[in-house]
Automatic annotation (TrEMBL):
Domain of life where this protein originates: Bacteria
Record domain EAL: where: 1-259
Name of the protein described by the UniProt record: Diguanylate cyclase (GGDEF)-like protein/PAS domain S-box-containing protein
Source organism of the structure: Halomonas campaniensis
Length: 259
């Protein structure tokens, strides 16, 4: 409860919140093709609180709505600032919880942000988990179409960990599958798990290729994992090997060039 009160105060003031950015790197060219926005919270008393702790708390308490609004606005403002400084930031993906996705007026709000911060279509995209979309599939299709009309990329996060019927992949207007890091890590893990994980990665990447979806391999930490992925049609690499999440200034210094 103390933590919830602290989070409530933080959301009101914005103090102690920061968005970090992790690069998504094109597997073949090595170019930074995107970034994921990841929220960080530092509290004077509780210290650095992990998103694994405060995001679920925010979801339960409803604070995820103002918190999510803060993230989107922060990202939009950052992208505008980079563009005004003559930099060419890549598309940035924002994670959306169920309640954020289903909140009234999401598509209109995103359109407003693009307009207010003078962003090109699709400069901000979204990551959702399978369960969010499967609950009310027809409504999800309509919402996603609205976002796609704004040019937004839509990724399924943690793919392979939910209880997905695969049929939804055909029905939803998605652009990207993100293979959960547990499969990537098992590729080079215990002997007993390698074959199974390789089969899953082969199936997911093959499926994505046939459906015209981009594939992100998440949680790539080692050269061995990168090498193990080389036989599969993976588009993008995201992980500590190619770049940890870093603050905006560090991200710009490392990855953004003028022009
Ligand atoms: O940054 P880290 O890998 O610790 O994130 C842990 C979890 O928190 C991930 O599932 C990530 O999707 C989620 N997360 C991080 N930032 C945000 C955010 O801005 N909004 C939502 N809804 N989830 C986030
Ligand atoms: O659920 P989601 O994919 O949004 O979670 C992203 C989380 O994964 C972030 O908290 C980020 O810090 C973390 N992450 C990013 N790259 C790596 C990695 O290479 N290894 C591990 N263990 N975690 C990672
Ligand atoms: Mn994510
Ligand atoms: Na993920």
């Amino acid at each position: 409860l103390a933590l919830e009160t602290a989070l409530r105060n933080t959301v009101e003031s914005g103090e102690g919140l920061e968005v970090h950015y992790q690069p998504l790197v094109d597997r073949d060219s090595g170019e930074v093709q995107g970034a994921e926005a990841l929220l960080r919270w530092h509290h004077p008393e509780f210290g650095q609180v992990s998103p694994g702790t405060f995001i679920p708390l925010a979801e339960r308490s409803g604070l995820i709505l103002p918190l999510g609004e803060w993230v989107m606005q922060r990202v939009a403002a950052q992208l505008m600032a980079w563009r005004q400084a003559g930099l060419s930031p890549p598309r940035v993906a924002v994670n959306l919880s169920a309640r954020q996705f289903w909140q009234r007026g999401l598509v209109e709000r995103v359109a407003e942000l693009f307009e207010a911060y003078q962003l090109p279509p699709g400069q901000i995209g979204f990551e959702l988990t399978e369960s969010v979309l499967l609950d009310h599939q027809q409504e999800a299709v309509e919402l996603l179409h609205g976002l796609r009309e704004l040019g937004c990329r839509i990724a399924i996060d943690d793919f392979g960990t939910g209880y997905s019927s695969l049929s939804y992949l055909q029905d939803l207007p998605l652009t990207t599958l993100k293979i959960d890091r547990r499969f990537i890590q098992r590729l080079t893990g215990e002997e007993s798990q390698r074959r199974g994980s390789a089969a899953i990665v082969a199936a997911v990447t093959g499926l994505a290729q046939e459906l015209g979806l981009r594939v992100v391999a998440e949680g790539v930490e080692t050269e061995a994992q990168l090498a193990a992925l080389s036989r599969y049609p993976v588009t993008l690499i995201q992980g500590y090997l190619t770049g940890r999440p870093v603050d905006a200034e560090t991200f710009a210094g490392r990855y953004l060039q003028a022009g």
